[in-house]
């Protein structure tokens, strides 16, 4: 192995001390974390250590300029207590695409995968069992040059932390659109899971929540009329029995692993899927004529969530009653069943932890 991982275990595990009703995404973190450092052009010193605070010089570059990227994935408990990962190769590829766009070094596949497998293996007792529960996995990379001038950086840390997550309450989501705020534009960093994309969304999100909505539905940066995506979810519309999702070719939309999985699941069900531009006028027109029969957001955190209201140009468009919708429920059921090993994995998406050693 080119990157052997040094392991320092906790003396006393905290696993099992957290009551099931206290499990809440991001509230508790598992016993261990993974770190590797990059300097002099090479990834070095990969290690698993007890979960702890970072010690950073206040001049650490990423704190000032946001050169920081992340991923979001989950480990699920299988029917025989296995730890199951869902399409980790997709997260790995996206992490490197984000890194490249942000001027950061790529991670070798061996380093990324062995780190995930080793860390989840050591903390596998932190994966909560039961419907909807999982262990959320947060890999991230930050520039660590101790220099507050703006210049290309040379030092980085790659870190992974994990947090037990509870079932997501599938309450229908009310989304608000804006013309005065945009998330991304061609040539920008919309396709990267880069920290700044989320920092800049906080003000619009606050405004949406203050107005009684749950999330922002982002529109394109040029004409402010085409649907792009929701906070941390891609979006799908079913019009005339065709499943439509915004295309990725402008580089303004995060390429979701869930998005790709839903496209494949829908196609396997014989549904026609189109990846193309879709304007809010097209959506609201179809809604008026009862041709819009479903609309949902998809992402790792929430799986598949129905959208009940779209606010556009000062008007609320109430979509068809969620109880009448067939497809979001069917696709969500299949996706969740595959992830947790309850349904045959016909796409070879599920990877048991420890099943693969990357050399
Ligand atoms: C992470 C994310 C998604 C969903 O991606 P998944 O890989 O399906 O979890 C969608 N949009 C944005 C902006 C995201 O950050």
Core attributes:
single chain; 359 residues; alpha+beta; D-amino Acid Aminotransferase, Chain A, domain 2; nine-stranded mixed β-sheet; six-stranded mixed β-barrel; 8 helices; binds pyridoxal-5'-phosphate
Short description:
By secondary structure, this protein is α+β, with helices and mostly antiparallel strands. The chain has 2 domains: 166 residues, D-amino Acid Aminotransferase, Chain A, domain 1, CATH 3.30.470.10; 153 residues, D-amino Acid Aminotransferase, subunit A, domain 2 (D-amino Acid Aminotransferase, Chain A, domain 2, Alpha-Beta Barrel). The chain contains 8 helices and 18 strands.
What do you see in this structure?
The protein has 359 residues and is of the alpha+beta class. It folds into two domains: 166 residues, Aminotransferase class 4, branched-chain amino acid transferase, N-terminal domain (D-amino Acid Aminotransferase, Chain A, domain 1), CATH 3.30.470; 153 residues, D-amino Acid Aminotransferase, Chain A, domain 2, CATH 3.20.10.10. The protein contains eight helices and 18 strands. The strands form two sheets. Strands 1, 2, 3, 4, 5, 6, 7, 8 and 18 form a nine-stranded mixed sheet that branches. Helix 6 packs across helix 8. The chain is globular. The mean pLDDT is 96. The site of pyridoxal-5'-phosphate has 13 residues, from strand 12 and helix 6.
């Amino acid at each position: 192995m080119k990157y052997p991982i040094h392991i320092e275990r906790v003396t006393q595990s905290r696993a099992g001390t957290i009551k099931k009703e206290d499990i809440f995404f991001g509230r508790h973190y598992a016993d261990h974390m993974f770190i590797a450092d990059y300097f002099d052009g090479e990834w070095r010193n990969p290690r698993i250590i007890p979960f702890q605070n970072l010690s950073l010089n206040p001049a650490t570059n990423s704190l000032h300029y946001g050169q920081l990227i992340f991923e979001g994935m989950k480990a699920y408990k299988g029917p025989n207590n296995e730890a199951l990962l869902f399409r980790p190769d997709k997260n790995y590829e996206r992490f490197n695409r984000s890194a490249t766009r942000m001027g950061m070094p790529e991670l070798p596949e061996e380093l990324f995968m062995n780190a995930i497998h080793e860390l989840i293996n050591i903390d596998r007792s932190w994966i909560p069992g039961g419907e909807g529960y999982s262990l959320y996995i947060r890999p991230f990379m930050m520039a660590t040059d101790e220099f507050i001038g703006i210049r290309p950086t040379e030092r980085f840390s790659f870190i992974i932390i994990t947090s037990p997550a509870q079932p997501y309450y599938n309450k229908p989501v009310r989304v608000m659109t804006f013309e005065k705020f945009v998330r991304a534009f061609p040539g920008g960093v919309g396709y990267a899971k880069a920290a700044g994309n989320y920092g800049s969304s906080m003000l619009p999100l606050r405004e949406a929540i203050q107005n009684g909505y749950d999330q922002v539905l982002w529109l394109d940066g040029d004409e402010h009329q085409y649907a792009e995506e929701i906070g941390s979810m891609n979006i799908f519309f079913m019009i005339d029995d065709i499943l439509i999702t915004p295309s990725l070719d402008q580089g303004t939309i995060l390429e979701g692993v869930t998005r790709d999985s839903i496209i494949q699941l829908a196609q396997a069900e014989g549904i026609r899927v189109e990846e193309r531009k879709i304007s809010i006028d097209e959506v609201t027109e179809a809604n008026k004529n009862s041709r819009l029969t479903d609309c949902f957001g998809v992402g790792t955190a929430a799986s598949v969530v129905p959208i009940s209201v779209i606010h556009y140009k000062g008007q609320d468009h109430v979509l068809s009653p969620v109880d009448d919708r067939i497809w979001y429920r069917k696709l969500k059921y299949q996706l969740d069943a595959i992830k947790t090993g309850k349904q045959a994995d016909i796409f070879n998406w599920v990877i048991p932890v420890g099943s693969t050693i990357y050399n």
